[in-house]
Amino acid sequence: LTIGFARRFATYKRGTLLFGDKERLKRLVNDVTRPVQFIFAGKAHPRDEAGKALIQEVYKFSRELGLETRVVFLEDYDSYIARRLVQGVDLWLNHPLRPLEASGTSGMKSAPNGGINLSVLDGWWREGYNGSNGWAIGAEIDSGTTEFQNEVDASSLYHLLENQIVPLYYAKPDGKLPLAWLQLMRESIRSVTPVFNTQRMVKEYTQQLYIPAAHGYENFSRDGCGAATQLSQWKAKMRKDWPQVQVSDVQIASKDRPSISVGESLQIRANVHLGAVDPQHVRVEAYHGEVDNGDLHNPSATVLNQRSQVDGNGTYLYEGSVPAAESGTYGFSVRVVPIHPCLMQAHELRLITWS
Predict the structure, then answer these.
(1) Portions of the chain given CATH number 2.60.40.10
(2) What mean pLDDT comes out for the span 247-271?
(3) Given CB 3.0 to 4.6 Å as the disulfide criterion, which of 18, 134, 167, 334 pairs with 355?
(4) What's the pLDDT at 142?
């Protein structure tokens, strides 16, 4: 079983996590019936002294008795070596300190080549892992010291290697092929390759950012930048008048019932004081989701419609219904956000009022 770890060496990527228990590592890699080898490669930024020190540590470990034939560090890391590694290893290892990994592209490159990912649920693997296309290292810890997280993740890494990964790789029920491992390879290729690739990335950047930006430039440049001037004036007025916006008297039609059934809808009403803000320039929403430790899990927003004017001081009644699609404990809040057809992004003004 060949396991690869190749990337830029930075302290948060924890390149030496595996070496915290050297005796356990020696037992793992020197099993005569199920041998394992690790291939390390990478470079550190020229000014990253801590990163360069990690490389020195990995190299030192690779020369120790009992590891010298099972742990290899490839020097002069470049795109040629990276390409050969993602094409040749069986398992791609990634264990950054959560939540510091922004992406982790090396694992994306490994999957189309049949490599399976073994990674902390951070960066791209947080979205890419589906439970059947690789392994996840450690629990998603929200508290504790860095040392504690290192200990937990190292323990999880060894547990996965010893009890799941190595036995699965060497399990050959027909005496020839590791059928379960091959199924993991297929699922990894199927689930990762169409989603995590440069073609999709460039396409989405173009469709969601570049083309709208080009259209916006054309629109704002037309007629002596008239649209840009109007939008700027509108933004200034909204920022000035927004402190007047308040949400009050939020009610639900079924407040006397302890629960509602799946398939029914929760009727929500709220009075919204807009003051000098034009009702056509706001959107009132019910922000709802399943309650999880005081937070809303997988929330979504349902627009509440303006029904009537409550008084002559800029207060309006908004109503709407939220369907109960699934069972559980759910919560909601009412919020108000500004809207304008020329805004490039919904929260461009960073203005929002909650009930």
Answers:
(1) 235-354
(2) 83
(3) 334
(4) 64
Q: What is the pLDDT of residues 316-340, one digit of tens each?
A: 999 999 888 888 888 899 999 999 9
Question: Where do the CATH 3.40.50.2000 domains begin and end in the chain?
Answer: 2-196
CA-based angle 93:94:97, to the nearest 5?
150
3-state secondary structure of 118: strand
Burial class (CB in 10 A: 0-12, 13-18, 19+), 306: middle
Q: What is the CATH number of domain 2-196?
A: 3.40.50.2000
For the stretch 1-59, pLDDT in tens is 999 999 899 999 999 999 989 999 999 999 999 999 999 999 999 999 999 999 999 99
List, for residues 111-145, the tens digit of each pLDDT value. 999 999 999 999 999 999 999 999 999 987 766 78
CATH topology of domain 235-354: Immunoglobulin-like (2.60.40)
CA distance 232 to 244: 20
For residue 315, the tally of other CB atoms under 10 A from its CB is 16
Q: Which of 126, 137, 128, 130 is nearest to 101 (CA)?
A: 126
pTM of the model: 0.71
CB 99 within 8 A of CB 120: no
**Beta bridge partner(s), residue 337:** 283
* 3-state DSSP assignment of residue 7: strand
Q: How far is CA 25 from CA 36, 142, 226, in A?
A: 10, 28, 68
